[in-house]
Amino acid sequence: MSFIYAFLFGAVIGSFLNVCIHRMPRDESIISPPSHCPACRNRIRPTDNIPILSYLLLGGKCRHCRQPISWRYPLVEFINGLGYSLLLWKFGLTGQTLVYALLFSALLLVTFIDLAYKIIPNEITLPGIAIGMIAAGFILPQGFWNSLMGLLLGGGLFYLIADLSQRILKQEGMGGGDIKLIAMIGAFLGWQSVLLTIFIGALLGSIVGLFLILIKGQGRRYPIPFGPFLALGALASLFWGTEILWWYLSGGFWGQ
Asked: I need a labelling partner for 143 at 20 to 30 A (CA). Which of 23, 60, 216, 228 fits?
């Protein structure tokens, strides 16, 4: 039952994340006005705002104007609910789990905003850096100094890459949003995990980039948001970082 409760709670938070995904890039308040249909502007009834279930009962359409509702809404709710359940399974009912739930939702929020708008709002990353540092000092296992090293190492590396790209290649490399995002991840996870996050994120980004070039025929300059790959790398580090490092140090595929 604990996992079911965690899923339901995560789905409810996911419903709020959908509000943030829609409003934050538009610089709209995430509190007022209440939830409404983007097409007809009619206020959504409480009975039509039940995570996942309402989408299914309404057939994916607004009750008033019958315009389609984006599949993103139930997907975000489901992913956030599933993520909370997995965190409970991995870390138990602890303060650590609550902190990582906050990180999970922040990464999910960043992913969908970056995919849709190619931006990572400071309203997510800057408070996230502060929260990660405070939590590391009192709750998280890596401790404050490891967290500070993760923040400086991740943010510093990305800042250096961005600066070299502009100076040498005369083009924009890593965006400011990506720099703050990796700094936030470092604050929550520490320096070892931030390096693993960068490695996994770069690997996934390279695979997708090659796919776009070879299969879709997109050029090298086709903009690919890097935030979602960093988010996936951070979650892989959070859930399986120790196992991945042991596998790599033991020889990886070559050691099999």
From this structure: 228
- Dist CA 51 CA 10 (whole Å): 10
Under 8 Å between Cβ of 122 and 180: yes
For residue 43, report the phi and psi dihedrals to the nearest 5 degrees: -70, 140
The residue to which tokens 């994916």 are assigned? 60
Nearest alpha carbon to residue 108 among 140, 89, 133, 82: 82
Domain positions in the chain are 1-93, 102-256
pLDDT tens by residue, the chain, 256 residues: 899 999 999 999 999 999 999 999 999 898 888 888 877 888 888 888 899 999 999 899 988 888 898 999 999 999 999 999 999 999 999 999 999 999 999 999 999 999 999 999 999 999 999 999 999 999 999 999 999 999 999 999 998 888 777 777 666 667 789 999 999 999 999 999 999 999 999 999 888 888 877 776 665 566 788 999 999 999 999 999 888 888 777 765 555 5
Contact 14, 77 (CB under 8 A): yes
CA distance 115 to 252: 31
